[in-house]
Each structure stands twice: as C-alpha cells, then as structure tokens.
Write a structure and sequence with these properties.
The protein has helices spanning 91-95, 100-112, 121-135, 149-156, 164-170, 181-188, 192-216, 280-285; strands at 38-45, 49-50, 65-67, 71-78, 85-88, 115-118, 145-148, 245-253, 258-264, 270-272. It is an alpha+beta fold. It has 2 domains: 37-219, Ribonuclease H-like superfamily/Ribonuclease H (Nucleotidyltransferase, domain 5), CATH 3.30.420.10; 235-285, no CATH class.
C-alpha cells in the first residue's frame, strides 16, 4: 500500500511541512486552537436480528426485534499522523452485545476533535455512535465540524457508484480489505478471529479514507475554514491551511462585488479573497 502521509501536507508561511518546521505547527486544539485537530473515523456495527414471515418488502414492528445493533469496532486517526487507533470487542463482549468498554476511547477522541471526517459519517457513523453514547449514559462530545466524503461524492461528482470502495478503485487509490457477511455473523457469535479480522478491516477503511479525503479536498466548497483555526499573519488556504497562494488571473463575481481569486499551491483548491475590489463609485451604480 502507498503511504498517503506525504501527499498534500499543509505548509507553513516558510513553505515547510510539519516535519520540516514543527515550530510553525503547534498542536493545541479546541482551547484557543492554533490548528484544528482533524479526526478520520469509521465504525463497524453488528446487524440487527429480527423475526420475519418472508423476504418480501414489509414493515417490521419493534416487537419482532430480537437484538438491536451495537458497535463491533471503531478505528480513527489524526490527519497526517501515521498511527491508526482503534478498539474491538472481546468474544464475551460480542456475545453479550456489550460495547460500553470500547466507547470511552472513542468518546475521548471525538471530544478532542475540531473536525471529524468519514464516508457516510453524517447519516451513519455519528448517529449510530451517538445512539450508543446515549444508551450508555455518556454525555455528548464537545462540538466539532463534519466533512462527509459521501456527501462530497454525491453533490460534486458523478461517480457510477458512491461507495468508498468504488471511488478509490476508480481514482487508483488503495482499496478496502475483503470482508463477507459471514464475517459479521461470526462476530455475532463471538468468534475471536472474526473480531480481529473486523478490526483490521476497520483500520484499513480509515487509512483509505484519508487518501480519498486528500484527493477530493480541493473540491470541497463547504470545507471548514482552516483560517478560523490557524494563527497566521498572511492569507492561507481555507481548505488546507497552506500559505502559498497564486492569483489565477480572474475575479469571482457576486451580485455586489468582485473578489480576487487564488489557487492554493498545496492542495489545488480555488479560493477568493474577502475584500471587495469594486470602487465605491461602481458599487453605488450597481442595480440589484
């Protein structure tokens, strides 16, 4: 597998990376942050067990539920940090559907994060995690922004499939490990080897998620503005925090203004200055 950690890394105003010039990249986060703490996250959940009369489309009442979902494993990493963290259930915990032990480490990371990234993280991972936090009487983590690469795929691109597996293959990136539904069934009965396989599969998903995020990052118009987190005396890219920007030779026009447009030399995002360069006379003569 290729290592994505040296791809599109942010550079300081001296054009150095974090490893080359660490003093320009302090590690503080939510408490008066200098740079954001960006967490890539993925979970694997147990399937529900329900009683049904047939396999046709039907409404299944709550009384037919034998067991609800719970979390088999979670994996996460800080952006550009080579270490992938994670925890998975023991055989006994899986048999008892008890994920309480592994939730505390996940809660701590989410509580530290300024930005959380995932594929379908808005509609699936975060909502499922919140449900298990609530059930286990855990408070909500501190606030964070969310980047969902599935939402980016759906709104910006026209992939034939929006699954991370398909997109990564299409873009020539690393791919998911092979898993089958039988592996989930084996985890449900506490199979130790299956649970360990699930944890490895989970961590690989986080690794390839980072590759996908870095690939699509310049296209994310709604990306959290890194300028809100990074202490800098010069203009920086809103998507990656890089200070090296090149004018593209055209303006971005709105109903009432003209703004200089730049391209980030690091990630390639196209951004605009917030200063309106129309003269006062021109602004006065505009009809809206």
């Amino acid at each position: 597998m290729r290592n994505p950690l040296n791809l599109f890394q942010p550079r300081c105003k001296h054009h150095h990376t974090r490893s080359e010039h660490p003093q320009c990249f302090p590690q503080e986060s939510k408490s008066g942050a200098s740079i954001p703490k960006v967490l890539l996250l993925d979970i694997e959940t147990a399937p529900m067990s329900v009683l049904v009369w047939n396999l046709h489309k039907q409404r299944i009442p709550p009384t037919n539920v034998l067991s609800d979902f719970f979390i088999f494993s979670w994996a996460a990493k800080w952006l550009f940090d080579p270490a992938i963290q994670g925890e998975h259930l023991t055989s006994k915990e899986a048999l008892n559907h008890n994920d309480s032990r592994i939730l505390s480490g996940l809660w701590k990371l989410m509580n530290e994060a300024d930005i959380i990234i995932g594929h379908s993280v808005k509609s699936f991972d975060i909502r499922k995690i919140n449900t298990r936090f609530l059930l286990n009487k855990m408070p909500p983590p501190a606030s964070y922004a969310v980047i969902d690469t599935l939402s980016v795929a759906r709104t910006v691109f026209g992939f034939s499939s929006n699954s991370m597996e398909y997109i990564n293959i299409f873009l020539g990136l690393d791919r998911k490990n092979e898993m089958h539904f039988q592996d989930w069934k084996d985890c449900l009965v506490g199979n130790k080897e299956a649970l360990e396989k699930m944890a490895i599969y989970n961590k690989q998903d986080v690794y390839i998620l980072e590759e996908l995020y870095l690939k699509v990052r310049p296209w994310i118009k709604s990306h959290p503005n890194m300028g809100l987190y990074i202490e800098s005396d010069v203009a920086i890219c809103r998507n990656c925090g890089n200070a090296s920007l090149t004018p593209v030779g055209k303006y971005t026009y709105t109903e009432c203004g003209a703004f200089q447009t730049y391209r980030c030399d690091n990630c390639g995002a196209v951004i605009r200055c917030k200063t309106n360069e129309l003269s006062n006379e021109k602004k006065h003569n505009l009809l809206v």
